[in-house]
TrEMBL record:
Residue numbers spanned by region Disordered: 233-256
The organism's taxonomic lineage, starting at the top: Bacteria, Bacillati, Actinomycetota, Actinomycetes, Kitasatosporales
Gene Ontology terms: biological process: DNA metabolic process
InterPro entries on file: RecT_fam, ssDNA_annealing_RecT
Entry protein name: Recombinase RecT
Molecular function in Gene Ontology: DNA binding
Length: 273
């Protein structure tokens, strides 16, 4: 390797996607929840690109898509490049670019972060499993697994529910293969070999059920909006009332007449306005 080759490699590294992420660290930090450390977030994001040459290429092809995905992850407070928030390359107009996809662990994290639930259960049901759930009769699903089985068979169902802080059970979400496949069909790039639908099928079944569950339990996004609304209302109540002028200002001569008052006019023996 020549000195010129090394210099070129260093220049690419210093001006590549990793440098771009570092450059926009302050912007990412502005939208992050308080529990997320910007330095850690940026370090993990840069590390993901360095470990995956396809991701690095996709990031270089379209830096705007890269930063858009990272901004989404930052706003949600999820870790990029993990099962909380996937970073995947996908083809767009003949070249790779980065797509951000919320994972099942991310969906569950957002539910927990709202503080309304004590536990979240998301499980897949395979062909050899025993599963029973009757809405209105059963509070929670009954799921038996033969852990000694060498092969539980293909995926058949997926379910999700939460146990609230008061012990109550949320709505139970149960999806069959057809429903999951319908959700997959609506997912952009799901047929790509890089998609988590192809590489992590079971996790994406669980993500689909967990995402449906967020319609029935609070998520951190809802919680944060409610907190902001409450803070705004308190601030409005505490704001001092502005002084209201009921009439024109006085003249410089405080002993003189005030405009629109009646004063005696001794010379004419009458009044004037």
């Amino acid at each position: 390797m020549t000195d010129q080759t090394i210099s070129n490699a260093v220049a690419v590294r210093e001006n590549g996607p990793g440098a771009l992420i570092q450059q926009y660290k302050a912007d990412l930090a502005q939208v992050m929840p308080s529990h997320v450390k910007p330095d850690t977030f940026v370090r993990l994001a840069v590390g993901v690109l360095r470990r995956d040459k396809n991701l690095a290429l996709a990031a270089s092809n379209n830096p705007v898509a890269l930063m858009g995905a990272l901004m989404d992850a930052a706003q949600l407070g999820l870790t990029p490049g993990t099962e909380q928030f996937y970073l995947v390359p996908r083809k767009s107009r003949g070249r790779l670019e980065i797509q951000g996809i919320r994972g099942y662990q991310g969906e569950i994290e957002l539910i927990y972060r709202a503080g309304a639930v004590s536990s979240v259960i998301v499980e897949v049901v395979r062909q050899a499993d025993v599963f029973r759930y009757s809405p209105g009769r059963d509070e929670r699903p009954h799921h038996d697994i033969d852990w000694d089985a060498s092969d539980r068979g293909p995926l058949r169902l997926v379910y999700a529910y939460a146990v609230m802080k008061d012990g109550a059970t949320s709505k139970v979400v149960v999806l069959n293969r057809a429903q999951v496949e319908a959700a997959k069909a609506l997912s952009q790039g799901s047929d790509s070999p890089y998609s988590p639908w192809q590489k992590h099928e079971e996790a994406m079944w669980m993500k689909t059920a967990a995402h449906r569950l967020t319609k029935w339990v609070p998520t951190s996004a809802e919680y944060m909006r409610e907190q902001l609304r409450a803070h705004a209302e308190v601030a409005a109540e505490q704001r001092p009332a502005q002084a209201v002028h009921s009439g024109p200002d006085r003249l410089d001569d405080e002993d003189g007449p005030i405009v629109a008052e009646f004063v005696d006019d001794e010379a004419e023996g009458g009044v004037r306005a």
